[in-house]
Design brief:
Two copies of one chain form a homodimer. With 155 residues, chain A is mainly alpha-helical. Chain A has two domains: 90 residues, Winged helix-like DNA-binding domain superfamily/Winged helix DNA-binding domain (Arc Repressor Mutant, subunit A), CATH 1.10.10.10; 41 residues, no CATH class. The first copy, chain A, is 48% helix and 5% strand. The first copy, chain A, is built from six helices and two strands, in the order H-H-H-E-E-H-H-H. The first copy, chain A, has a two-stranded antiparallel ribbon with strand order 1-2. At the A-B interface, helix 1, helix 4, helix 5 and helix 6 of A face helix 1, helix 4, helix 5 and helix 6 of B. Chain A binds a DNA duplex (30 and 30 nucleotides) through helix 3.
DNA sequence: CCAGCTCCCGACCCTTCGACTCAGGACCCC
DNA sequence: GGGGTCCTGAGTCGAAGGGTCGGGAGCTGG
């Protein structure tokens, strides 16, 4: 049960992957992503607002509106997504920006230096993995692709 | 606020470091560690039970009892400690041992494979850092050392 | 041989946080 | 201008984190 990632991060990754994989450039709507990825649409909305603020997503309202990536999939990393949904990588509070949480022993604590060091490495690691890589993998495995058609068919 | 480590892990690391650094082989008592590291003794007790079960610590009761390392500091890694206090490294529930938590989409989810992969790498990374390295660093920085004397001086 | 020291065990408590849900407003397009 | 879509902020519920406590078990020095 150690160091779990929040669902916001996981869903965020899956959602961005979904857009990159299924979209042909048109805005993708929450209800479609929600259906394909089995994520509550209300919750997705909330997550997407964070991703927007982080500059990863753009949006358009009204009929045939939706969300779209603001960068190439190869330029969006897991690190970006996790930082957007959960904040900066800090394994430990000791040296956080939050003044309430700073450890009073910080200065003579060898551990604190180590933790910040590790946190940085962790961030670098996540920054080395892009959404494009996930798409690549999905393609190899043969995940079915669902294209967003510009026209809607009424049955 | 991403992926925070629990205090159990952090305190566990500091406590084991404390024993390795200050002890001359004699059992170290909770009250001393608690004083030097500023950790609630009651809470430390709880953590030490986990470290014992994991085979990292041994103990002796009664007067002049205490806890001692069961391995060389160079053979105790951060990974060992974190696993002992928080369980296995799993960034994500999808593929955990806990059957209740397995993600139903596991099989066709490219992400799940990625998460387990990253979890493994994370564990490997923490296993590459030992308590001995922390001691080394403390020595360099010149952290004061307090020896446990076999005899008590009454003032 | 026993008093007191230390570890041992399990239950308990309180606060915070994660994971959603919801009501209603703002835009947009046809 | 009406229905579809995104936007905003508040509210809820349960779980988990972080810590406390009472009392028992084993040891040992006097």
């Amino acid at each position: 049960m150690a160091m779990r990632l929040s669902t916001k991060s996981r869903y965020g990754v899956r959602a961005l992957f979904d857009i990159a994989y299924h979209s042909v450039g048109l805005p993708t709507q929450i209800k479609d992503i929600s259906r394909r990825q089995q994520i509550s649409p209300r919750y997705l909305e909330q997550i997407f607002q964070k991703l927007k603020k982080a500059g990863l997503l753009g949006s358009k309202r009204g009929p045939s509106g939706g969300y779209f990536l603001l960068r190439e999939p190869s330029e969006i990393t897991l690190g970006d997504i996790i930082r957007a949904t959960e904040g900066p990588f800090e394994l430990v509070f000791c040296v956080s920006e939050n003044p309430r949480k700073i450890c009073p022993r910080k200065d003579d604590c060898v551990a604190s230096e180590m933790w910040t060091d590790i946190s940085r490495k962790l961030g670098d690691f996540f920054d080395s993995i892009s959404i494009a890589q996930l798409c690549e993998q999905a393609r190899e495995v043969g995940v079915e692709r669902e294209y967003n058609h510009p026209y809607t068919y009424h049955i």
